[in-house]
Amino acid sequence: MKATPPTRTTPLTLGPDEFRALGHDVVDRIAERLAAIPEGLVTRDHAPSAIRATFDLDRPLPEHGTDAKVVLDGVVDRLFDHSLFNAHPKFFGYITAPPAPIGVLGDFIASALNPNVGSWRLGPAATEIEATTVRWIAELIGFPSGSGGLLVSGGNMANFACFFAARAAKTPWDVRTDGVGGGAGRRLRVYCSTETHTWIQKAADVSGIGTSAIRWIPADASQRMRIPLLERQIEADVAAGDIPLMVVGTAGTVSTGAVDPLPQLAELCRTRGIWFHVDGAYGGFAAASPEAPADLSALALADSIAVDPHKWLYAPLEAGCAIVRNPEHLRAAFAYHPPYYHLDEHALNFVDFGMQNSRGFRALKVWLMLQHAGAAGYRKMITDDILLSKRLAQVIAANRLLELVTQHLSITTFRFIPEDLRHASENDDVRPYLDRLNQALLDRLQREGRAFVSNAVINGTYVLRACVVNFHTSARDVQALPDIVVDAGRLLDREMRA
């Protein structure tokens, strides 16, 4: 019988010297490429087949391994050559922030430790750091002390966690045992505006109440929920024997950044005993800014809120956060204790607070970033983003070939209108052409890569959309965007009319 070697060497083993050398080389390459981003394109127009060829992705799974140095050689450069850079100062698309450098390092450290932050025993330091991170986030946005929550992958899952907390807390029977059908035919109802993100449909589907349980309340011309219509719908549902479970207010809609009338929603929910949830995945952190809309002060009145550190805290993906006024509502929604869980009841075990058992150390990067910038630093960066968006709106409004449509929080929407169509833009025979023109313009801008914007449809009109959640963006970048759009728009208009 062969003697067992004192140490085990596997195909994945790297000695400390080799790991150090490879790590230093990777960090050096990343630092160089990050420094070069501002002077390059936001993205390049590569075909999927070209990307597969670059990485040799059509080959079969290798039977035998390859030396780590060979595997890593050139991978940083190839990835940077074939990616979209949300760290570019002219990235205005969607609501995706650049990764803060200290957050990148935090992810590196967290991966090296690799704790399972499901139970305290498996990740004692990580668990305590996550609890503090959630508390600091609550402090930053003015949420009440004593609240609690957990970090998740992003806005969908943060809203899901709060949705299930509401379902367990406000259903008048044991919904976890008897299901949503345990109410002898009584329907659970959820209320939100027509501008609410699609997470609400997923949550209604997955929770079993069904998407038909959602009451979509029309928004006004400013994309805010119409309270009188909400009240009428609730009264009609109560009269029909249904159960109003939850009202969702949005703090920063995806399309325009509009904020629902949160104080009125909070008061309505308080008087009627309905769970009040705020989807603040985008705009919740703006409550820390003196430039925030007054309605955001009502975040403190919510039963729960979802926010995304990977949006306006500039954390690397993934990092969402669910916060509940009474954290025991999360435990009541998710906790089970089978015999193979030997958990210390006096320690904080995040497995009891959400859907995941195996949980990564997402909190470390956010915890490091909150220390690095401090509350004052975040207030200034978020305020600067809002002011840059307002500045962009001013520049757009002054350009005779652009039409400003909306400006809320750090989102500005607008469209390109050729000069000869300016006074006919609302005519029935012109509007379809302008929609097609701006849709084609978006595609061209995204492919060219000089600047990156997205789109929205507002009151039936197709518009371009620029969102600033980017600590790299400066006044120079927002000043440059309208000219880039106009240059591309003029050329495209000539091509389309020809």
Structural class comes to alpha/beta
Count structural domains: 3
- As a percent range, the share of strand residues is 5-15%
What order do the SSEs take from the amino end to the carboxyl end, as H and E? HHHHHHEHHEHEHEHEEHEHHEEHEEH
**Cα distance spanning the termini:** 84 Å
Give the rounded overall mean pLDDT: 95
CATH class of the largest domain: Alpha Beta
Please state how the strands of the largest beta sheet are arranged side by side. 1-7-6-5-4-2-3
Q: Tell me roughly what share of residues is in helical segments.
A: 40-55%
| CATH homology superfamily name of the largest domain | Type I PLP-dependent aspartate aminotransferase-like (Major domain)
Question: Which architecture of the largest domain would the CATH scheme give at its second level?
Answer: 3-Layer(aba) Sandwich
Query: What is the CATH topology classification name of the largest domain?
Result: Aspartate Aminotransferase, domain 2
Main beta sheet: strand number and arrangement? 7 strands, mixed
**What does the overall shape look like?**
globular
Gyration radius, rounded: 25 Å
Q: What's the tally of helices?
A: 16
Query: Are there runs of 5+ residues with pLDDT below 50, and where?
Result: none
**Count of extended strands:** 11
